Amino acid sequence: MSTAQQSQFPYYDAQSFYDEMFEKDCSIRPHYRNVHRLFNRLQPAELVHREQAIHKRMLEEGITFTISHESQQDALERTIPFDYIPRVIPRHEWELVERGVQQRTKALNAFLHDVYHTGRIIADGVIPRKMIVSNTYFRPEMAGLHVPGGVYITASGIDLIRDEHGGYYVLEDNLRSPSGFSYLFKGRTLMSELFHDLYLSSSVQSVDRSLNSFLSSLRQLSPNGNRDPLIVLLTPGVYNSAYYEHAFLAQQMGIHLVEGRDLVYKDHKIYLREMRGLRQVDVIYRRIDDYYLDPLSFHPDSLLGVPGLMNAYRAGNVAIANAPGTGVADDKAIYAYVPDMIRYYLNEEPILHNVPTYILTRKEEMDYVLDHLHELVVKETSLSGGYGMLIGPTASEKERKAFAEAIKKEPGRYIAQKTMKLSRAPVMVDGLMTPRHIDLRAFALMGADTHVIPGGLTRVAMQEGSLVVNSSQGGGVKDTWVLNQ
């Protein structure tokens, strides 16, 4: 009888999916032995007790996320599901991921500078011009504009999956204002406290210095070389689904948490209103979309942004992270060209590969996709968070037909991808181990160097058989441990 079968937890056979903890024969992968040993020893009642302790802590600290429903009035705020069986990644695997993420973000940053300046990649025919200028997130206002330090994407979240053989693939790039940092750091705090002995005995790479790296990256953006810059985090406010994260990051990095009404434009500069008067702001880490950033430049009815902000930005008196217009590089159609960007700008072969992707403006690829909708995943290029997506193998005939009509009407609005067999990891449900599909959001912080936070955030599809891991769609998270050895 195998080790897994002897466990007090009736687990599953590792069939056609790659399992993070178990080999095909249900033996334990070497880097998981310490974790499995502890969870195999604990009684179900103790596991339920620890789960309740975690949930209580999350409620007390307000670690919440808003799940969207069809009606905004039905939106539900709740604690994000947190599974306490950590995901474990051996050091050699993480080193590959780290190098791949650094390579990818470097190429994407070079692409952003290029498309807003000389446009060499377009002139050389690597990417069609129409795909850039018709992109929802392309901002003509950024053309020719100097970006402090040449850094467009201070913070990025690169979503990775593993196929049935355990190979890593990039699923998508999140470059506008990626979320999930707070769940990464709070998850580590909870695990190191509630599973203290396991954590200490596992020799896990620390994430403690990553917040300092984040702050350092923001400080380096200061346009006037101020050694003690005033940095603010611009939030849409308390009703935003990720407000907890905004407050957490501001508090942890020691920067000001502000809304648009707290800032004022004057003499081509941005100032923070304080009791003592106005203080000039050097760097804005914004967590609102371009569209709402400045009502004088973008959406005139926006009450979230700062009138005149883009004027101050163009004058070089304030830095914005991430830079406006970065969304053109994380559009799902542009994603298909990132391997070409890596070869073009860096003269290197991609370390991390894309999921095979179909561009539907190419007639032969659109025809293939329409004939194989039942096998593919279709995504709306400008949406994120699991919205505007069709998972062909599990969709109804009615849903596939509706997507087929939408694709025929606006093929440039969609891409299609091969349905990947996402890897699985064990989660604890009512004291029993059970498999769920996962992905990995790797966070990169770009400054003088690019720091990739060890482990990133593992996201979990909490519903059995589901491939949707997004928090806004009911997904959960795990702490991710990168081993030192």
UniProtKB/TrEMBL annotation:
InterPro entries xref list: ATP-dep_Glu-Cys_Ligase-2 (IPR051680), CP_ATPgrasp_2 (IPR025841), UCP005522 (IPR016450)
Protein name stated in the entry: Circularly permuted type 2 ATP-grasp protein
Alphabetical list of SUPFAM superfamilies matching this protein: Glutathione synthetase ATP-binding domain-like
Annotated transmembrane regions: none
Limits of the Circularly permuted ATP-grasp type domain: 86-461
A UniProt-annotated Pfam family: CP_ATPgrasp_2
